[in-house]
């Protein structure tokens, strides 16, 4: 069964450093998403991406965050200057089209900011 | 704003039915979902229901929706040890199923022998 692949599975970074989380969505999917889950809290929507632009973003997704689809296969989330409160599990997801019910999620990248 | 609430823990005996409950606040919800998360894994879509449906059955899974009370439940028949996981209730109110999803906190289901 096709999968959404996220790398790395765990990343440790120092506060203030830039970090890029990588995702390879399912190849024929058109919609891409990032969600995050801070330990002990709910899974929160960050951003959705379609046709090479952001479709929707949450209040969390401020100027420190950016997304990019640099080639036909990768979808990245960049955090420009990490803060301690950015420590969370980040999930990438993709869906085929507007009529696909629910998304396919990756296994997540655990980001630890120290 | 939109919110989804569910109890944090549920313990059932192997072979019994599990019922996980959820309430949501957004009256314009169009899609409601149940996701499963096993340790170290991502969020796996288990099933979904449209807001104009009352019930959906899929093998051992039964979803009931009470739109008036904004209450969603997931029943797992003949619960097995492999059903141990965190179950997330979620809703989407967008015009398409590609819209953002609002998740509950997840219910950790544990199975007693």
Helix content of chain A: under 10%
Total strand segments of chain A: 11
Instruction: Give start-end ranges of low-pLDDT stretches of chain B.
Output: none
Q: Count of helical segments of chain A? A: 0
Beta-strand percentage range of chain B: over 45%
Overall pLDDT confidence of chain A = 92
Give the CA-based shape of chain A.
globular
Task: Give an overview of the whole structure.
The complex is a heterodimer of chains A (114) and B (113). Chain A contains no helices and eleven strands. Chain A is globular and about 40 Å long. By secondary structure, chain A is mostly beta strands. In chain A, the strands form two sheets. In chain A, strands 2, 4, 5, 6, 9, 10 and 11 form a seven-stranded mixed beta sheet that branches. In chain A, strand 5 (43-50) and strand 6 form a beta hairpin. Chain B is an all-beta fold. Helix content of chain B is 0%, strand content 55%. Chain B contains no helices and eleven strands. Chain B has strands at residues 4-6, 9-13, 18-24, 31-37, 43-50, 55-58, 61-66, 71-76, 85-92, 102-103, 107-112. In chain B, strands 2, 4, 5, 9, 10 and 11 form a six-stranded mixed beta sheet that branches. In chain B, strands 1-3-8-7-6 form a five-stranded antiparallel beta sheet, with no helix packed on it. In chain B, a hairpin with a 4-residue loop joins strand 7 and strand 8. The radius of gyration of chain B is 13 Å and the shape is globular. The mean pLDDT of chain B is 91. Classes of the chains: A mainly beta (114), B mainly beta (113). The interface between A and B is medium-sized, with 28 and 23 residues.
Quick structural summary:
The complex is a heterodimer of chains A (114) and B (113). By secondary structure, chain A is an all-beta fold. Helix content of chain A is 0%, strand content 50%.
């Amino acid at each position: 069964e096709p999968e959404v692949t996220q790398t790395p599975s765990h990343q440790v970074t120092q506060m203030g450093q830039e970090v890029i989380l990588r995702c390879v969505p399912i190849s024929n999917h058109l919609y891409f998403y990032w969600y995050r889950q801070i330990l002990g809290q709910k899974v929160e929507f960050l951003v959705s991406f379609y046709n090479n632009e952001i479709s929707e973003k949450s209040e969390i997704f401020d100027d420190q965050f950016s997304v990019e689809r640099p080639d036909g296969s990768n979808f990245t989330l960049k955090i420009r200057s990490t803060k301690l409160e950015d420590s969370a599990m980040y999930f990438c997801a993709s869906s085929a089209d507007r009529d696909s019910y629910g998304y396919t999620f990756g296994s997540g990248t655990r980001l630890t900011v120290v | 704003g939109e919110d989804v609430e569910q109890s944090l823990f549920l313990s059932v005996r192997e072979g019994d039915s599990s019922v996980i409950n959820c309430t949501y606040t957004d009256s314009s919800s169009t899609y409601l979902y149940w996701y499963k998360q096993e340790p170290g894994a991502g969020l796996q879509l288990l099933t979904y229901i449209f807001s104009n449906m009352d019930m959906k059955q899929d093998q051992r899974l039964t979803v009931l929706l009470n739109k008036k009370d904004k209450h969603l439940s997931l029943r797992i028949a003949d619960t097995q040890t492999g059903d141990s996981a965190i179950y997330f209730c979620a809703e989407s109110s967008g015009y398409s199923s590609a819209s953002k999803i609002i998740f509950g906190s997840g219910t950790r289901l544990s199975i007693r022998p």
